[in-house]
Amino acid sequence: MTRRHRPPSIRSLSAAMSLVWLLSGCAVQVESNSPYASPDNGQAVSAYTELGLAYLKRDNLTRARDALEHALELGPDDPRALESMALLYQRQDEPALAEEYFERALDADGDYTRARNNYAAFLYDEGKLDAACTQLQQAAQDTTYNNRAQLLANLGRCRFEQGDLDAARRPLEQAIASNSRDAQSLLLLARLDHTQGHDERAWERLQRFFTLAEADPESLELASEIARARGDEKAAAFYHQQHDDS
Q1: Mind listing the pLDDT tens digit for each residue in 25-73?
Q2: 192 near 206, Cβ under 8 Å?
Q3: Which of 17, 140, 180, 235 has the fewest CB atoms nearer than 10 Å to its CB?
Q4: How far are the Cα atoms of 112, 137, 143 from residue 239, in angstroms, in the given order?
Q5: Are 192 and 172 in contact (CB under 8 A)?
Q6: Which of 88, 84, 76, 82 has the alpha carbon at shortest distance from 36?
Q7: Are the CB atoms for 138 and 117 separated by under 8 Å?
Q8: How many CA atoms lie within 13 Å of 235's alpha carbon, on the beta-carbon side?
Q9: How far is residue 164's CA from residue 118's CA, in Å, rounded to a whole number?
Q10: CA 50, 56, 61, 63 torsion: positive or negative?
Q11: Measured distance CA(110)–CA(112) in Å, rounded
């Protein structure tokens, strides 16, 4: 039996997918007064990019732009500098420019997984769900990516929101295999199992979720639904009351 599923009230994918690395401070040294005079352009590009990211973290957008423009003057095809400029435009609510620079970063380096993950988050924020899922699917092929477990979880959530439950299952299960304490993926898998009529498995996953995270209205409502589907009216009533009191 397959139940009609509802879009989950999960936390924003953009928050889950935000894996941007930023410096903790702004003390970045650049060897020359003129960026063009640097004997090592690659090193200067990296230094200006790090400086721009540090200013971006501190919400000093003017100085962030100055530093990143210097980086791109030196290295117009540097993928990290291009991605950083995309993040700046995203912060400034300039979606067309942000998309352009994300695309340029990935044109410069198609294997730049962090940029692809951040691009997916941007696309999700813009309501471009299909495009976001496509970017995540491609990023998930990088088995060496340090944050692959979170990336897989994001892909599963994205596919679930698309309504493609079969495509959502595998990345969610992979995410849990990599990180058994991923409570949100457990919750989403419990909902997926319940939607597809696998209520015993859904119940087991949900009980594991409750050992890892605090109950919230979404999980309590799901617990009541699964308990009722299992014929446990007492548990269904208990979780329903907990939901009403939350």
Answers
A1: 334 444 434 343 344 688 999 999 999 999 999 999 999 999 999 999 9
A2: no
A3: 180
A4: 45, 36, 39
A5: yes
A6: 76
A7: no
A8: 14
A9: 22
A10: negative
A11: 6
